[in-house]
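Supplementary Methods. Inverse-folding protocol.

Structures were first reduced to a discrete structure-token string of length 82. This string, shown here, constituted the complete conditioning input.
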């Protein structure tokens, strides 16, 4: 599949920074903290975390877990969130 065909299937739309993005992140952060209490740190990353730039309206969240644990250790809790 060519890059042009990929863009037709999955177009990328950038929008001006939205104040709601921070609120959306905070809502997700709260859900993650309740569902995964062992989380060491949660961060809003990516272009939506930077005020005054255009971005894809997708909130990127980085979840840091304790050393020695992996995503598999949290699988059931994450599935329950869906």
């Amino acid at each position: 599949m060519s890059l042009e065909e990929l863009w037709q299937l999955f177009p990328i739309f950038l929008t001006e920074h939205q104040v709601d993005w921070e609120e959306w992140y905070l809502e997700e952060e709260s859900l993650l903290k309740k569902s995964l209490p062992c989380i060491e740190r949660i961060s809003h990353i990516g272009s939506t975390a930077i005020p005054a730039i255009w971005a894809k309206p997708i909130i990127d969240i980085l979840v840091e877990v304790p050393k020695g644990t992996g995503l598999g250790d949290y699988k059931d809790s994450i599935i329950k969130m869906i």
